[in-house]
Design brief:
Strand content: 5-15%
Distance between the termini: 5 Å
Largest sheet: 5 strands, antiparallel
Helix content: 40-55%
């Protein structure tokens, strides 16, 4: 005789299919991985918060890389399509305009929907925006017009010389016509990206928080922040890699990446990110509505389970908004983050351009140092911060106090960075206009026919004086490679080009033999760049230790049912008052420090030269001001922080033991009731002997 399970039908086993199914049946459906009828058994072992964390974070890395990749190639796009930093700011705010309108709605309805599939749908829009961003290159091709004065170079001549010819520029076929369509395409692509990433940031983290125990949330958030920190770094590294290749990788422009006329392959990274996003978006869509119950902190009763899938009504929207507005901790926390995002985001978005202008780095190297230098420091800071919170579980008052201290240190770091600049370029023969820009023309080069369309800096024989181009230095011809020199201030590098007989260059002894210039900027001998990078790494490490605490405060200062909606409202406020203003503020601020604008066909394009001292003071000063205002509101959060309770779950594990026991007894009784109801509606499994 063997024992086996046989289904014995009850009196109510033939009830209508329209009746509400049993709790266990419904849970099994909501907790299965797959789409539609594709839910194989081998796939169910991946319904785990750790697997979700990895895939979710990889998507976060790629989404974050999209933004910083765009930032890394921004100066190249300005050069390629000849537009100002203010227009760059308009492109950057496009994704936040769309996020402003949709964040609150996604948060309001997303708390009850199928979160993984909502995120996957949004990421498909991000993929479309990636591929759309490459369209301007395929429409207009590489920027060959920057290699010479004419759109098509004459012979091998790719430089401007002083040859007493005033040439008429061909404006009918000018590449300036590509500016407006290219900017429009990039704007629309970024606009779609805003719709796409909203679901990711609004409901992705609450899905994880709802499906793990509260006491484990700090480590999950720490791992999430640590993994996603690779996103900005990956974007900068990818832009650095792509910009090392010319815009058309199969064309030899005859110049290297350190030449200001170089335009790197800005479009390639968008393709790479688009394909990578597609793979992991499909994997995320396979996750169930909720993870198995064994991973969660609390069991849900029948009423909660029945209402979880019901979408909220629009009439409840004002009540939810009012509920959040009456939360002083959340309001002050949001205002603080808004000001700090303005300060930090504006600083880091324009930091690559600052490195190019201040330390004369190439666009590729600026992207590399912007992203790569802070990876390890930020990664260590996030992991250490999450581990310390998990281990010691500091009270909210101590946690908020530490956040204030960290923010104060960030302001001090910016203050120190102001003094880590390099001396400005020496530009002889120039004068300052009323609008504080430079006039490059003087009596010596007035008849040379020079333009500001082509920027090719050359260094004078004294090793200090820099000229905008060989034409502005009065150089009539090209004589070849630099011969061995006896002057110690000039480096004898074999691949430098020497322009001789330059009549606007004053030699050491005013002799004919020293009237030459060499290609490239003069070596300033400034070694502050290393100190600046070290200061940057230290600041990133210390500030990143507070990131996990910041996330916990956002989640714990609201009711569990309002988490998704709070993040949605948070996203809308940030988009409207932080992500939209800062590109416009810092773009206008950066343009105000420009000394020489590109000009062709009587139209102004991108900026060629910046006032390095003014750029440094404006950039750091504005960030210090905005972050300091945010600190004032964080002090208020610190004073109110004792109002937050159950910060680490289960009433912080030690209090209310009797209450927990009472709740456990009540849950056991409810489970008996549920089992009784289910036994009346479904076959009961009983043991019967089978011969």
């Amino acid at each position: 005789m063997k024992g086996s399970f046989q289904s014995v039908p009850t009196d109510e086993s033939n009830t209508s299919n329209s009746e509400q199914p049993c709790l266990s049946t419904k849970q099994s459906v909501d907790e299965l991985c797959g789409i539609g009828s594709f839910k194989p058994k081998w796939l169910q072992k991946f319904a785990d918060p750790k697997v979700y964390l990895v895939i979710f974070c990889i998507l976060g890395v790629l989404e974050g890389a999209y933004f910083t990749y765009f930032v890394g190639v921004l100066s190249t796009l300005e050069k390629r399509f000849a537009f100002e930093s203010k227009i760059s700011g308009v492109i950057l705010i496009a994704d936040n305009i769309s996020a402003t309108f949709i964040s609150m709605l996604v948060g309001f309805y997303g708390g009850k929907g199928h979160k993984p599939r909502m995120i996957a749908f949004g990421m498909m829009l991000v993929i479309v925006s990636c591929f759309m961003s490459t369209i301007p290159y395929f429409l207009y091709g590489p920027a060959l017009h920057l290699l010479s004065r004419e759109t098509v170079a004459v012979g091998n001549r790719k430089d401007e010389y002083c040859d007493n010819e005033i040439r008429d520029e061909s404006c009918e076929n000018s590449d300036n016509k590509a500016m407006l369509p290219a900017v429009s395409i990039l704007f629309v692509a970024n606009f779609l990206n805003g719709f796409g990433y909203t679901a990711y940031y609004t409901i992705g983290a609450p899905y994880l928080d709802d499906n793990v125990k509260k006491k484990n949330s700090p480590m999950y958030f720490s791992a999430m922040a640590a993994l996603r920190i690779f996103g900005p770094a990956l974007g900068f590294l990818l832009s650095s890699f792509c910009l090392k290749y010319y815009e058309d990788p199969f064309y030899d422009p005859g110049i290297n990446a350190y030449n200001p006329r170089w335009v790197g392959a800005w479009w390639m990274g968008f393709f790479i990110l688009g394909f990578a996003l597609l793979i992991f978006t499909l994997l995320l869509a396979l996750f169930p509505r909720q993870l198995p119950e064994r991973f969660r902190s609390e069991k849900k009763n029948v009423v909660e389970e029945d209402t979880d899938t019901e979408l909220p009504k629009i009439k409840d929207f004002p009540k939810a908004v009012k509920r959040l507005m009456k939360n002083p901790i959340l309001v002050c926390h949001v205002i603080s983050i808004t000001f700090q995002v303005n300060g930090f985001a504006g600083y880091f978005v324009f930091m690559p351009k600052f490195m190019e202008a201040q330390y004369q780095q190439s666009a590729s190297d600026a992207s590399l140092f912007s992203g790569a230098t802070g990876i390890i420091s930020m990664l260590l800071g996030i992991l250490i911060g999450g581990f310390m919170i998990k281990k010691y579980k500091p009270r909210p008052r101590y946690l908020t106090a530490y956040m204030v201290i960290v923010e104060i240190f960030s302001v001090v770091g910016l203050l120190i960075s102001i003094f880590l600049g390099c001396p400005p370029l020496q530009l002889p023969g120039t004068s300052v206009n009323k609008d504080e820009t430079l006039t490059l023309y003087n009596e010596c080069n007035a008849a040379c026919g020079c333009t500001r369309r082509v920027f090719e800096p050359v260094c004078g024989a004294d090793g200090v004086s820099t000229f905008f181009s060989p034409c502005f230095a009065g150089c009539p011809n090209l004589t070849g490679l630099l011969p061995p020199m006896t002057t110690p201030t000039i480096s004898t590098i074999s691949n430098l080009t020497v322009f001789q007989d330059c009549r606007c260059v004053a030699g050491f002894n005013n002799t004919f033999e020293t009237n030459y210039v060499t290609s490239g900027f003069c070596s300033s001998g400034c070694n502050m760049f290393i100190a600046y990078i070290i200061m940057l790494c230290v600041s990133k490490f210390i500030s990143s230790t507070a990131r996990v605490g910041n996330t916990l405060i956002t989640f714990r200062c609201v009711d569990s049912k309002d988490k998704s909606f709070a993040l949605g409202a948070f996203g809308s406020v940030l988009a409207m008052f932080a992500f939209i203003p800062y590109p416009l503020i810092y773009g206008a601020l950066t343009d105000s420090t420009c000394l020489v604008w590109e000009e062709s066909c009587s139209k102004t394009g991108n900026c060629w030269l910046y006032d390095s001292d003014k750029f440094r003071f404006y950039l750091h000063g504005m960030s210090m001001l905005l972050i300091s205002i945010g600190i004032c509101f964080d002090v208020v959060v610190f004073l109110l922080s004792d109002r937050m309770s159950n910060f680490y779950g289960e009433e912080d594990e030690k209090s209310h033991t009797e209450d927990r026991l009472a709740r456990w007894i009540k849950e056991e009784e409810e489970e008996d009731v549920i089992f009784t109801k289910c036994s009346k509606r479904e076959p009961v499994l009983q043991m019967e002997p089978i011969i």
